[in-house]
Amino acid sequence: xxxxxxxxxxxxxxxxxxxxxxxxxxxxxxxxxxxxxxxxxxxxxxxxxxxxxxxxxxxxxxxxxxxxxxxxxxxxxxxxxxxxxxxxxxxxxxxxxxxxxxxxxxxxxxxxxxxxxxxxxxxxxxxxxxxxxxxxxxxxxxxxxxxxxxxxxxxxxxxxxxxxxxxxxxxxxxxxxxxxxxxxxxxxxxxxxxxxxxxxxxxxxxxxxxxxxxxxxxxxxxxxxxxxxxxxxxxxxx
Length: 238
Hints:
Largest sheet: 6 strands, antiparallel
Strand content: over 45%
Order of helices and strands: EEEEEEEEEEEEEEEEEE
Shape: globular
Helix content: under 10%
Distance between the termini: 55 Å
């Protein structure tokens, strides 16, 4: 770190995976990101995005931050629309005017500590329950000037079927390499409903989950592994 043990190093923060995870066609709004990398100091890293209205009337947009991994010494918060939230708040709802754009930032203060942060940001239209999201992986390390980063090994999460469902769901994880994967079912307010951990082999892995005990509504299913998180929406009907 600067001024400590790495005199020939600098602090580099990379958003290695800041990409939209789209659950089907989004008609009324779009959640987009702009920053794919940031070279900064030991003080803070800010990643920027926008929530863009595609509707002809005002919408109530709820944004939820789900933290998958973060160093205990880091501080992380986000700003969206008219508000900048304190670190302990994970959800904020605001009105997005027709054809308007709300600025979004995810603000991370590593406090000089090397580490990795992984988050999923969900934006939900409260009236139509349409969902869009971005998955963010931020690595903060001290490296030499000539050091380089490689993207983590990727995997694919298939579409969920049947969707909607009143019984069970099926989906596939297509993996480039064998490893540990965690799959979490979230309510739209960020609550963890179910979590399962798997040791999966490379190639296509078919999984089935029983959803019969859940109330009707919309949920988010997220698969995390190999340094990435991919999310899909699923609806339960009775």
